[in-house]
Amino acid sequence: MKTALFQSFEVSSDGEETPYRLSIAQAELNKNKLSGYIVPRSDVHQGEYVAACDERLSWLTGFTGSAGICLFGKDKAGVFVDGRYSIQAKTQIKPPFEVIQWNNKN
Questions:
Q1: How many other C-beta atoms can be found within 10 angstroms of the C-beta atom of residue 60?
Q2: CATH number of the structural domain spanning residue 30
Q3: Which end of the chain is more exposed for a tag (fewer CB within 10 A), N or C?
Q4: What are the tens digits of pLDDT across the range 5-27?
């Protein structure tokens, strides 16, 4: 008998840990003398469909949309999303991250 497989919508980060996780990542920037770091939604193969173990963007920021990118530096952090995710991003992403609306006119 075949087993049905369903997409999981389990949230890998509820946002409570994001300030701590960001502070650790920013400490690594300083330690390695880097100015910033990019966290894409895609996996290591630049794939559109990301396995739960590769949900870096969700883990760091709490954002679970299927398109977005985080850029953080030593003092600031932003999550870039397009118009499809503006409401979701504002709901899921909390300070110290800033939601930055991306559109084709920018």
A1: 23
A2: 3.40.350.10
A3: N
A4: 454 556 556 678 899 999 999 99
Contact 95, 77 (CB under 8 A): no
Number of helices (H) and strands (E) in the chain: give both, helices first.
3, 4
Q: What is the 3-state secondary structure (H, E, C) of 33-50?
A: CCCEEEEECCCCCCCCCC
Q: Say if 16 falls within a structural domain.
A: no
Q: How many domains does the chain have?
A: 1
In a domain, 45, yes or no: yes
Per-residue pLDDT of 48-67, as tens digits, reads: 788 888 889 999 999 999 89
In a domain, 15, yes or no: no
How far apart are alpha carbons 101 and 89 in whole angstroms?
9
Contact assessment for residue 61 and residue 93, using Cβ atoms and an 8 Å cutoff: yes
